[in-house]
């Protein structure tokens, strides 16, 4: 087998998407990959502790009042030091600077808890619930310089039930996020897909 693809995970919070990715790597659902490093901008992020418990390299790189570009430069250096080839934002609640995105062209993925382009930004599940949508879901996309805008890799949908509140809906979406992220990473690493305009399609 060829050298494993090295994933870098960026997170800010609980890290359930990171754990789903880690489980999928371990189970071979993301073939020929390994998690090279987990980085958080919050030293007390539960996801960082979970990564350490799993024996993964997990580091906090906090902004500490630095400008965004300076903070990002420290993260880029850590990703390069760990020879990361694909970056997965997993609840990383900080905008990336243009320099960060340019350092890893089409090599940064994000998961967002809505069917983009609907409901970009914060609290997407609550936005969708309050809007009254009947179908909700999640999107895994490449990161570009606009918020929640990059090329869509895949989406998964869930129904919105009459009995839902925004919390029950969020939980239903999160379960799909965990499936979607692993599938999207496997798709990107497979090398079987290409970008055509804004479409991410299987090679002919
Ligand atoms: C997830 O729902 C993810 O889609 C969302 O944050 C949550 C992180 O949960 N991300 C965004 O809203 C990004 N705009 P997790 O820490 O348990 O993976």
Helicity range: 25-40%
Q: Radius of gyration from the CA trace?
A: 17 Å
Q: Shape from CA axes?
A: globular
Count structural domains: 2
Describe the sheet with the most strands.
7 strands, mixed
The CATH homologous superfamily of the largest domain corresponds to: Formyl transferase, N-terminal domain
How much of the sequence is in beta strands?
25-35%
The average pLDDT is: 97
Q: Summarize the helix and strand pattern as letters.
A: EHEHEHEHEHEEHEE
Order of strands across the widest beta sheet? 3-2-1-4-5-6-7
The tally of beta strands, per DSSP, is: 9
Sheet/helix structural class: alpha/beta
Report the bound ligands by name, code or SMILES. glycinamide ribonucleotide
Distance linking N and C termini: 24 Å
